[in-house]
Amino acid sequence: MLFRHTLRTSAAALALLLPFAAGCGGPAQAESPSDLSSVTLSVGATGWKTEEAVLKYAHLDDTPYKVRWSQFQGGEQQLQAVRAGALDLASSSEIPPVFAAADGAPNFKVVAVQRGATLNQEVVTRKGSKVTGIAELKGKRVGYVQNTTAHYFLYALLKQAGLKWSDIDAKPLLPNDGLAALNGGSIDALASYGTSIITAHQQGARTIGSGKDILSGNFLWSARDNVLQSPARRAAAADLIARITKAYAYVRDGREEGFAKITAAATHQPLAQARKDLVDAQRQRPTRARPVGDDTIASQQRVADTFTELGALKEHLDVKSFWTNALDADLKKAL
């Protein structure tokens, strides 16, 4: 059954990454803050490595340090990889760091915020389904990506419709497994994001709920502690985050068509749709990084409190404990 392939199975996949953990940077004393040539950053990407692609498109991939990109189906897996020592830098929504830190001993800190669009974050039903709204999900089998934005906005949409989490038969699934389960009839609806939602629509899926106006648009960069302990690695991390901001500015400067072609090829969607999604996303909330702020910490605290209310977190979590301003100076300089 696809239901057996929950997010917990991703831990086994992370074991394959552990041999690379030793390559995630050497001892801090061996690195000069002005010489980044000895630095290698192992960086996570969700979906089709959008960040790597946009850097290359904007001719900003010629970094003075090495970047090793690893692809994941979600931010939750990236944070697991950070915890396992297999990633230096993870990008995710506000939610995965909450669960990664819930044991009280995280080996990472949130170091920067990347503002981004909240489009393609939806609850969908398959083609021909008689379910046309969230209220009709009572008693239905609903797939969702656990400990991610999909988990969060599905809970919020259920509350808006007067339903409790216990009113649905919730099935935690990875995005690709969820899409297969939806098309195969194993679930009645799917809460997911990104490429899986794009593909679902290509296959005739209908949107019955959206996280567009529920999610904050704050996407977090989390760095493993060993990155923060080295001036050179901090500088490299800040430079990479800033380059992604500059790359998207390059795209918005009349170059959407070219990047849409790259996106269409990677996501197997029509060029016109890829361009529309890109333009809509950048119009809704241009992709750009910013340093840590009290408002961004407070936003994630609201998210954590919601998961405590849901029962997904067993006790109150003070998110401020795993945020730091350690990258602020380097990031402001790089931007």
From TrEMBL:
PROSITE patterns per UniProt: PROKAR_LIPOPROTEIN
Keyword terms: Signal
Organism domain of life: Bacteria
SUPFAM superfamilies according to UniProt: Periplasmic binding protein-like II (SSF53850)
Domain Solute-binding protein family 3/N-terminal: 40-252
Pfam families, sorted: NMT1 (PF09084)
Keyword Cell membrane set for record: no
Extent of the signal sequence: 1-30
Protein family per UniProt: Belongs to the bacterial solute-binding protein SsuA/TauA family.
Name recorded for this polypeptide: Extracellular solute-binding protein, family 3
Lineage: Bacteria, Bacillati, Actinomycetota, Actinomycetes, Kitasatosporales
